[in-house]
User: Which sequence fits this backbone?
């Protein structure tokens, strides 16, 4: 006979798999914070936040997705369960998102013909035009996705 722990572990694994598959179809990365929210919305697993993050990361990497460990300190989720449905200003997307995305399109569109634009130069132009405070890694990811769609290639120059 199956133990209840085994059944619960399989349920958690199935929910994580569904979350990763959904993120794979629409995005190129998986957020551990959002994954924890999705899992806790359906059931309350008896595993630690660290184990949950590791399960999400392992499946995401197996599917070729990037993993964003954005839950802060990787401790127990026990005290945070009450806060999962709270709408906090920090949980929302930055208000500048459309401006930054539009500016990225404009920068890459204007450099489509010549390949003299480096990633660092594109990030500098993006910061200059929008005044964004987003990290270089975040902007690099945005520019890489936009460049792929537009067929723009960055030069190797620094």
Assistant:
């Amino acid at each position: 006979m199956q133990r209840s722990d085994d059944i619960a572990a399989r349920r958690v694994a199935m929910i994580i798999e569904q979350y990763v598959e959904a993120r794979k179809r629409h995005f190129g990365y998986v957020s551990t914070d959002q994954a924890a929210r999705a899992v806790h919305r359906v059931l309350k697993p008896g595993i630690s936040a660290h184990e949950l993050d590791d399960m999400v990361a392992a499946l995401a990497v197996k599917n070729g997705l990037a993993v964003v460990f954005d839950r802060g300190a990787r401790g127990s989720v026990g005290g945070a369960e009450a806060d999962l449905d709270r709408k906090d200003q920090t949980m929302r997307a930055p208000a500048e998102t459309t401006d930054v995305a539009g500016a990225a399109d404009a920068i890459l569109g204007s450099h489509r013909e010549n390949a003299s634009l480096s990633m660092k130069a594109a990030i500098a132009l993006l910061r200059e035009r929008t005044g964004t405070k987003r990290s270089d890694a975040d902007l690099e990811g945005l520019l890489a996705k936009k460049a792929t769609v537009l067929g723009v290639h960055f030069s190797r120059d620094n």
Remarks:
- The beta strands are 29-31, 66-68.
